[in-house]
Amino acid sequence: MDGMEVGKDGRTWRIGAAADVAWLAEGRTAEGLSITTAIPPIYAGYATFYPLNRISFAAHERAVVDVLIAQTPPQPWWLGYLETGAHDIVFPEAPRVPLYWDWPYVLVEAGPDQALTWRTGHMRGDGSLPDLFFPRDRSWLVSALWDDTWTDIGGPAPLITALCQDPLVNARAVDPDEDPLPPGLIRD
Asked: How remote is the C-alpha of 138 from its chain's centroid?
């Protein structure tokens, strides 16, 4: 359904379709344990991040979004909510778009404020961030696969450096063929 819109917060939001993420579907993510399982190998830099136990989800996610805003020209963001049955997809009536291994996502064109506030329940903790999000210009991509407790990002090298320098983000740079599992975490 191209062109579908839904209402929330007193305005309408465009729901995404397969054409809006064709670049990701064609980006050749690879099955396995490298960061390119979640992020296609098209970016200059890659990192993985997760909140430290002493940092709240809200502070961690706000720091991530603040760095992304500072490194990105103003534009809409695509927010993707994976339907797993375990957490909120924000717009349950919206059509799904298959990504990765035909996992159903609800895609909404919105922005950073909505990324931080729309979701009310999340399987990775108390955070609100979408499972997948990127700006309209596709200069970076954030993706957390449904069974991971961390989040992956690909983007320009200065963005990756900025994320790694913020202690609230707790990011570490990884190579495209590297396992993104953060040190000290155990794979489920």
From this structure: 12
Long-range contacts, 180-188 (Cβ 8 Å, 24+): 180/34, 180/35, 180/38, 180/46, 180/48, 180/148, 180/150, 180/152, 181/33, 181/48, 181/150, 182/48, 182/49, 182/50, 182/150, 185/50, 185/149, 185/150, 188/147, 188/149
**What is the pTM (predicted TM-score) of this model?**
0.91
Distance (Å, whole) CA 65 – CA 72: 10
The per-residue pLDDT for range 161-180, each reduced to its tens digit, is 999 999 999 999 999 888 77
Residue range 56-97, pLDDT digits in tens: 888 999 999 999 999 999 999 999 999 988 778 899 999 999
Four-CA torsion 71, 72, 74, 79, nearest 10 degrees:
-120
Query: Cα–Cα distance between 137 and 31 in angstroms, integer?
Result: 26
Q: How far apart, in whole angstroms, are the C-alpha atoms of residue 76 and residue 83?
A: 22
